Amino acid sequence: MKKRFLLALGFAGALVVAVGVAVVAGPTPGAGQASSHREAPLISEDPTADNTDLYAFRSPDKPDSVTIISNWIPGEDPAAGPNYWTFSKNARYDIYIDKNGDAVPDTTYTYRFTNGPNVAFLQNTQQSYSVTKTEAGASRVVGQGLLTPPDNIGPKSLGGVPYAKYRTDQTHVLSDGELTFAGQRDDPFFGDVGAIFDLVSIRAGTGSTGGGKDFLAGYGVHSIALQIPISQLDNGTNHTIGVYANTERPTPDGGFTQVSRLGNPLINEVLIPTDLKDRWNATRPIEDSQFAQYASTPILAALLNKLYPQFGPFQETNRDDLVAVTLTGVPGLNYTGPTQADLLRLNMSIPVTASPNRLGVIAGDLAGYPNGRRLGDDVIDIDERVIAGELIGHKLPLGDGVNEDDKTFLSVFPYTADPDSGFANTKGAQKPTVAAAMAVLWRANR
Amino acid sequence: MRRLVLLVCAAVVLAAPAAALAHPLGNFTINRHSRIEISGDHLYVVYVLDLAEIPTFQARQTGIDAKVYARRIAAGTTLTIGGRPVQLRPVKQILAFPKGAAGLQTARLEVLLAGPKLHEVSEVVYHDNNYADRIGWSEVVGRASAGAHLLDSTVPATSKSDELRAYPKDLLQSPLRVTSARVRVEAGGRAGPLPTLSSGTSLQAPDRVADSGFTRLVARDRLSAGVVAISLLLALFWGAAHAFTPGHGKSIVAAYLVGSRGTPRHAVLLGLIVTVTHTAGVFALGIVTLALSQFIVPADLYPWLNLASALLVVAVGLGVLRARIRSMAQARAHARGHAHHHHHRHSHEHVPPEGSGLRGLIGVGVSGGLLPCPTALVVLLAAISLHRVGYGLVLIVAFSLGLAASVTGIGLVAVTAKRFFARKSFDGRLIRALPAISAVVVLGLGLAMTFRALPGLP
Amino acid sequence: MRKQRIAIGLAAAVVSAAALLLGGSLRAGDDAGAAPARTIGAQQAALESGFTSGSTVVLVQDLQLRLRAHSDQGMLWSLLGLAYQQRARETGDPAWYPKAGGALERARALDSRDPVATSGLASLALSRHRFRDALELGRRAHALAPDSARNLGIVGDALLELGRYPDAFAAFNRMARMKPSLASYARYSYERELQGDRAGAIRWMSVAVDAAGAQPEPRAWAQVQLGKLYWNEGQADTAAVEYERALTGFPGYVYALDGLAQVWAARGRLDRAIRFERQAVASIPLPQFVGTLGDLYRLAGQPSLARDQYATIAAIDRLLRANGVRTDLEATLFDVDHGVALGSVASRARRARLERPSIDGDDVLAWALARSGQCAEARTYSQRALRLGTKDAVKYFHRGMIERCLGRSGPARAWFARALATNPHFSLIWAPVARKALR
Q1: Of all residues in chain C, what percent are helix, strand and coil, respectively (each to 5)?
Q2: What value, to the nearest 5°, has the Cα angle with vertex B380 and ends B379 and B385?
Q3: Mapping DSSP to helix (H, G, I), strand (E, B) and coil, where does residue B124 land?
Q4: How many domains does chain C have?
Q5: Which residue in chain B has the smallest CA separation from A17?
Q6: CA of C351, closest CA in chain A: separation in Å?
Q7: What does the mean pLDDT of chain A come to?
Q8: Partners of residue C170 on adjacent β-strands
Q9: How many other CB atoms are there within 10 angstroms of residue C73's CB atom?
Q10: Among A155, A144, A218, which Cα is nearest to A188's?
Q11: Average of pLDDT values for B143-148?
Q12: Same domain, yes or no: C70 and C175
């Protein structure tokens, strides 16, 4: 009895102590305000490092040369002042060319930009840049003090000079004879982004009859264009090059880290799972065999089977055709060898088509995607069809209903259209639509 | 002891803090609502201004003159009818100070602004420019009545916030930032009644819904003694009630006690063991969960714990059964032996079968308490995550005590029933087999638990 | 028999132990229901990676629309939670935090291993000053998504506030190597600043400004931080340039308004200073703005207006305590600075420091102890506060007061001089005290 009483007493005592401890010692949560505890952003994007598109094609007006265009900064709203977009002055913007299929760059062009002087009200968006060419481990500067045009803010800030003149003035020749241009352009990409990513719903049936909304109409990008004589790139055997572009940012320990890259269009959006996106962005193409399974077993095919069984069956596994298109090149077209790497592969021996077909190779136009990529190639439609099985005998007229850009491309270098003027552009005057923002954000994923 | 309990309860009741009525949108907000009201052939705007605690405090430092505010609000609106700018005039205003948090007040000002007479079809454009830079809810609605009709409107007819009385908690609803409206209205033929302003309780706006959603029991930031005491009592009753839900080895306990030489003391001891095991089980699981929380989610552990607990019961059942059978055999041998020496006094009880001693008791008690219920675990983990570990432990202990009390109660019932039957001194084979039968029941239950646990595994 | 029973018991134990341990790794992989989520991953990855040019409002609208149609899409809920947090930054309105929490909890209910939801909850915990929670959640998020640099930032931020500097710096260094961006540059800059490397801090914060591009709020935030770096080393005019740039890009940005108010006070133009600070207060009366406005009124010889501001701070304090916040570091510092309730200020500072044992927590406690007359203990904490080598005029000044209280006038003068040499306008109230002490 006594023992039990003592036990109970001890228990009660412990209870009291525990309660006391709980009430007094527990640290309380803090205020819900962002007070002076420093809150650096965690959700900020990096648009000036964001690769949006890469193009590679034989120049239609100069077929003995190849044009490579690489774009950054998705969804530039021309009227979105008072901050204006420019290339980042601390980043390295690179274009890599592999000539022999080993996924190791043989020629690299590195662009570095510095800002112009800060004009009081409007920031000066004209930048000065240098181009460094690296071959066989040796680097040399092939262009220095080159200028971009200013952003097309409006006629007053352009000083009454038509934008076209800026463009022609700021097309430069590099030491080895390449042409180059860097600066703001109209975004040549086109697509009905909202429909695609609303669970791959395709407007108006299979959508190939048009009627989609080009969500990117009117938006700009920052572009680097290079035109290189084929003689500098031809390996003499299969005449095929593999191209990719990336952005590198400096790290405090003095090095540079790749933060974005692009070879074939839409890989990151369509094939790579979300949780691997960051790793994919930081990986160099030579290590891409780790991602081969996502081309070989595309999740999108499984989704198509689920959502549109009436159009199926869509082959979900052993998709060697996709692996070929994205990672090695298609045999007989632009195959570079067994090394798997996400590169945009251009067979430079295939002649320029007089009347290009937007569907490229799958429509019989061998000068189009996936053999390189031209500005007018409708990569969304092509990708939808290829994933559905176009190359393995399952042909469907899939499409997003947007078949061309809202602008006419130039017939001369740099081929992309001049950007819309902020002054004339109504986008800034009205709130951006949900759709437009969707497009912007979709492009931001790289 | 009873008096102490009563005293504690009284103290708890008196000390219970009132619920904090913080302004639902935050204590710094200034919220505005405009209701464009076309009554007959006249246009009015009923403007509601809701100041949260701090802006009210600041405003009252210089004094809130409702008329001055009304004039300022009117001046801060722009109205065009058919493109023509028109000035709204304040006609009537009413001011109240609903209670806010921490003994501070909020302020609710309603102003009736009068506009012009309308002719036939008019295009009305309204902007509210008051407090444009201030965080807070801003809303515009538009209505027509008394013969007038709205042909077109960019704003809805009813307020989402009941005119700043009840801000919606919907996660998919952003705080509104609507400050303008465009309506096309067909005016009525003659003047309609003046819109009325709120009065009485609707002016005091008591229906505000706090938007926080984090006020769970353990999450209460302010742990007064009253709160702790109440929650302990709750935990105790919760645990007791919980014992009657499926699980917690009640049947096993009962079966075991029936079969063993269970005394009331055993029942109480069993109850204590269940408490300790249950508490320890929750703690252990909590610690393990936290340690493994990077890899395993608590919910995933449950199927495995079920299995472990079931297997343990099977083991105990097997062991006890084996011991019982052996002791029965011994007893038979002993009885046969006794038959020849019936004049000996039985100086000893039948040797208690191995396994019905403390060890078996512990085994059953452990298995009964082994499986911590998810709710207890959640309480503990929540407590840990809010750094109220001591409080959480105490709640768990109270919970386990309640649980044990119920289980003990059941055990006592079983023991008493057995005793009742034992006194009747049945001496049939069935009765002698009862201990073994109960062991079989324990084993059977353990096997049943195992089979039930298996499909739940991932 | 006994051995057998032991064997059975052991076997059962081993089986269950093995089951528990292996249970984790034998979890089933993704089920088919995850397929749609992973392919929409592209869109969501886009949304997750960030938000451009102030279109967060539209992003939020879009996500809300989609969630009304597909409320079972955990990924969309996660992104909505992140978007709500960004809205909170942009507007300063704390009403977004419970919504963010709700959205993220919904996401986590749908998939307890959702890395984005876990990461979002971790950053939300940071915003609510629940640093231990943030650390735990951040670590968990990092384990779920080791390639995402964001979670290293969260972990580092939490470790900083908990006073674990070497670990915090290690996290920031990893973050910067993994993904150099505004987020990692800003943190690395702070790392340099804390260790007294002002040039490095300024350099890397400038890189952060550049990395922000034309995004209004992130750029303005980085510019204000850069401005503060200049301000803290006494370069008021250079600070003003950055504050003005921030305002140009993000009109009405309260932190820039507050910074400019302090610059104008340093230039002797109290009228302008008051105008800027009033603008900040009118936009959102955060305690630090209200307090500064009160000090400005006091300096401008308008004591009753100053008292009004201080009374507002007291009201805010009451609200905080009613919400269960007893230990806010900033509130305690205000009280110490303004001589409010000095009797209890030391114990309040101790509790505040428990929650936030950073060098700021050390310094506030040191200052509170000094003003309570416990200067020997104060000195220990002041030494802790300065242990990283941070060049902080306010901390130097507190040390000077402590030395003076201990009767060591030589060192006291040296510390006062050091404070004024670092930033002659380090405090509206106390810089004059330091100057007077040196005459």
Answers
A1: 80, 0, 20
A2: 100
A3: strand
A4: 2
A5: B390
A6: 8
A7: 82
A8: none
A9: 21
A10: A218
A11: 91
A12: yes
**Residue C305 in domain:** yes
Question: A379-413: per-residue pLDDT in tens?
Answer: 988 988 898 899 998 888 877 778 888 899 999 99
Per-residue tokens: A304:
């198509």
pLDDT of residue B450: 76
- Using a 10 angstrom Cβ sphere, with 0-12 exposed, 13-18 middle and 19 or more buried, the burial of residue B175 is buried
Does residue A19 belong to any structural domain of this protein?
A: no
Range of the domain at A125: 47-443
Q: Which residues of A touch B394 (CB under 8 A)?
A: 15, 18-19, 22
**What torsion, rounded to 10 degrees, do the Cα atoms A332, A334, A338, A340 define?**
-140
Look at residue A148 and tell me if it is in a domain. yes
Which residues contact residue B32 at a Cβ distance below 8 angstroms, ignoring those fewer than 6 apart?
Answer: B47, B48, B49, B50, B128, B130, B131, B136, B137, B138, B139, B164, B179
For residue A16, being part of any structural domain is answered with no
Give the closest residue to A373 by CA, choosing from A363, A386, A360.
A360
> Among candidates C411, C417, C402, which has minimal Cα distance to C371?
C402
Flag whether pLDDT at B419 surpasses 90: no
The minimal CB distance from A27 to the residues B228, B387, B392 is found for: B387
For residue B175, which residues of chain C lie inside 8 Å, CB to CB?
Answer: 93, 95-96
Per-window interface: A 28-47 vs B, CB < 8 A: 28-29
Q: What residue numbers bound the domain in which C280 lies?
A: 252-325
Last residue of a domain, one of C279, C310, C325: C325
> pLDDT tens-digit profile of C385-430?
999 999 999 999 999 999 999 999 999 999 999 999 999 999 999 9
Contact of A215 with A436, CB cutoff 8 Å: yes
pTM, two decimal places: 0.75
ipTM (interface pTM)? 0.84
Cβ atoms of C81 and C100 within 8 Å: the answer is yes
- Tell me the shortest Cα–Cα distance from A442 to chain C, in angstroms: 5
Across the range A171-179, mean pLDDT stands at 96
Q: Are B172 and C64 in contact (CB under 8 A)?
A: yes
Give the SS3 label for residue B289: helix
- B26: helix, coil or strand? coil
DSSP for A299-360, please give it: HHHHHHHHH-GGG-PPP-S--HHHHIIIII--TTTT---S-----EEEETTSPPPSS--TTG
Give CA–CA dist C235/C230, Å, rounded.
5
**C244 falls within a domain:** no
Q: Which amino acid is at C284?
A: I
User: Does any domain span residue A18?
Assistant: no
Whether C147 is in a domain gets the answer yes
How many other CB atoms are there within 10 angstroms of residue A263's CB atom?
Answer: 24
Q: Which of A107-121, B345-359, C272-286, C348-362 has the lowest mean pLDDT?
A: B345-359
Of C145, C179, C213, at which residue does a domain stop? C179
**What residues have CB less than 8 Å from A120, skipping those under 6 apart?**
none
Residue B358: per-residue pLDDT: 65
Kindly calculate the radius of gyration of chain B based on its CA atoms and give it in whole angstroms: 36
Outline where B16-65 has alpha helix (H): 53-62
- Give chain B positions within 8 Å (CB) of A19: 228, 232, 390-391, 394
Choose the weakest-confidence range: A29-33, A226-230, C203-207, C363-367.
A29-33
Contact (CB, 8 A) for B148 and B188: yes
Tokens of C411: 């060192």
Residues C161 and C267 in one domain: no
pLDDT for residue B360: 62
Cα of B307 to nearest chain A Cα, Å: 32
Quick check: B389 and A22 CB within 8 A? yes
Question: Cβ separation of A29 and B397 shorter than 8 Å?
Answer: no
Q: How far apart are CA B297 and CA C23, in angstroms?
A: 11
CATH of the domain at C81: 1.25.40.10
Res C153 pLDDT > 70:
yes
